[in-house]
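Work through this:
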Amino acid sequence: MKSAGVNPSVVMSIFKKEMEKGNISVDDPRQLMINILSLCIFPFAAMPLLKGLFFNHDQEAYNDFIEKRKKEVSKFIINAIKIK
C-alpha cells in the first residue's frame, strides 16, 4: 500500500473521523481496511485456483469476472459501512 502512495494511518484516520461524524458504521477500522485489501487481493493471489474451480481455466471468462468484480466489491464495502 505504501509503495502505491497509500498511507494506512491516513486512511484509518479518515475512517475514524467518519465514524465519529456518524457517517459510517464500523466497529474497528482495521477490520474494514483488511476486508478491503482481502477483497481486492484474493482473486489475484488465488487466480490459478479460481480459474480452475469457477472458469474452466478460461482466462477471458476470468478477466470478465474481474471487471465485474470491481463494481461488486465497491457495492459490498458501501453496504458494509452503511448506518443501519
